[in-house]
């Protein structure tokens, strides 16, 4: 059976993806622009805002990817997270431009898989975000950090369950339409609600 392990490259990729996404979400949330970046980064509130982003968006992305890896390793896959540095740079620049496109990289794995195993590996990420949203919801009353964690994790789950391209939802739908609908419908509805609440 394959063991869960991390090499130096994977640990570096995870750390840099976590940090880059934290910065991107901070720039976006604080409405930082090219012209205001110096003043904002030098301000006292920047580090607090960055910490909030790292604990909400950063943790949501990190645990999403690690969930894929854990399930892949369970199915005897050789699996590792690989950051996409071009997309991470785009995320940071997007945060400065006032939009977010966050695709930090992906867990790559090799080995033989059944459609069910592929579907379960894909499902692990969005289900982890739903679980994190529930955890953040427990802390949400009276807490901006909690509400941010709920919102971001619901958006991550809903987006990733869309049945298009390389997104998790497409893999799950190809395996089992009923499982896909059971997870995707509430995920997308909750994500839509999170945008408006």
From TrEMBL:
Single annotated GO MF: peptidase activity
Record-annotated membrane-spanning stretches: 15-34, 46-67, 87-108, 120-141, 147-165, 177-196
InterPro entries associated with the record: Metallopeptidase_M50B
GO biological process: proteolysis
Keywords: Hydrolase, Membrane, Protease, Transmembrane, Transmembrane helix
Protein name: Uncharacterized Zn-dependent protease MJ0611
Source organism of this protein record: Halarchaeum acidiphilum MH1-52-1
